[in-house]
Write a structure and sequence with these properties.
This protein is of the alpha+beta class. 32% of the residues lie in helices and 26% in strands. Strands 3-4-5-6-7-8-9 form a seven-stranded mixed sheet, sandwiched between helices. It has a five-stranded mixed sheet with strand order 11-10-12-14-13, covered by helices on one side. A hairpin with a 6-residue loop joins β1 and β2. The structure holds adenosine-2'-monophosphate and calcium ion. Adenosine-2'-monophosphate binds next to β4 and β12. The site of adenosine-2'-monophosphate (2AM) has 16 residues, from β4 and β12. Keywords: Hydrolase, Magnesium, Metal-binding. This is inositol-phosphate phosphatase.
């Protein structure tokens, strides 16, 4: 293992590349996009998703040979274990927003060492906001340090959730979360898991709930949220697995257990 690895250098490169990649995406708005569907009509991929993933792979392999890359579009390595340094990259998180709105999408990069999240970067490309954290050093929005999350009552919480999970779907009984939605102050849905996780870290959302995310959707957000004292687990309160799809419940620590116990596990009925 590369024991002398300079994490600050890694962080500096990753930040520089994420901003360069953001510029490439912004400059692409005026050119014709090639849009394809993947698993279903709502699962989109564009030539830019591929191009940006390739952009990172070229730079990482040149500057950090030996590091492995797990990317959404599968251009990187066939990552089966988390041994060593693994870059977990979503070149465009919120591809549907990218295609339909040209905003509210992000580049998400989590850098893990032996399965432990060391660096989390989420770049909201159009707003220009970079959310970043190194494990143990706090989280930041651009140059501003993000404070630890304050206690929030559920009645005063604003949570990110997509309406899919309270209508008929394959992953959760839609009646489970409906009472939670009634109880909280409000709900929002932005259509980019990375941005929603960054918002939890920044205290703009008090929680984010979704039933199906891939590692590249949450790898960076997990590092950011843990740095501000938030919790990120599956909806049943278990640890996330980094090599498979998970449900994700990211929230302010003050009501995390209460939501899992009352609304998901039905313990207090
Ligand atoms: P994407 O745009 O990178 O595909 C939308 O609600 C959020 O869920 C986005 O972050 C989107 O990521 C993610 N998402 C959409 N379809 C998904 C799928 N089939 N598996 C995992 N995550 C998905
Ligand atoms: Ca993506």
């Amino acid at each position: 293992m590369d024991s002398a690895l300079d994490w600050n250098k890694l962080d500096t490169y990753a930040k520089q590349w994420i901003k360069e990649a953001g510029n490439i995406i912004r400059n692409s708005f005026s050119s014709q996009l090639m849009i394809q569907t993947k698993t279903s009509p709502d699962d989109l991929v564009t030539n830019m998703d591929h191009e940006i993933e390739q952009f990172f792979i070229e730079r990482i392999t040149k500057n950090f040979p030996g590091h492995r890359i797990l990317g959404e579009e599968g251009v990187g390595d066939n990552v089966q274990t988390l041994v060593g340094i693994v870059w977990i990259i979503d070149p465009i998180d919120g591809t549907m927003n990218f295609v339909h709105q040209q905003r509210n999408f992000a580049i998400s990069i989590g850098i893990y060492e032996n399965g432990v999240g060391k660096i989390g970067l989420i770049f909201d490309v159009v707003s220009g906001d970079l959310y970043h954290a190194q494990k143990g050093q706090g989280a930041f929005l651009n140059d501003v340090s993000l404070p630890k999350l304050k206690n929030v009552k559920l009645e005063e919480a604003v949570i990110g959730i997509n309406a899919t999970w309270v209508t008929e779907n394959k992953r959760i009984d839609p009646t489970k979360l409906a009472p939670l939605i009634k109880r909280v102050r409000g709900t929002r849905s932005y259509g980019s898991a990375a941005i929603e996780l960054a918002y939890v870290a920044a205290g703009r959302l008090d929680a984010y709930i979704t039933m199906r995310l891939s590692p590249w959707d949450f790898a960076a957000g997990l590092v950011l949220i843990e740095e501000v004292g938030g919790l990120v687990t599956t909806i049943e309160g278990k640890s996330l697995k980094l090599l498979e799809q998970n449900s994700v419940f990211a929230s302010n620590a003050s009501f995390h257990d209460e939501v899992v116990d009352t609304y998901v596990l039905g313990k207090n009925e």
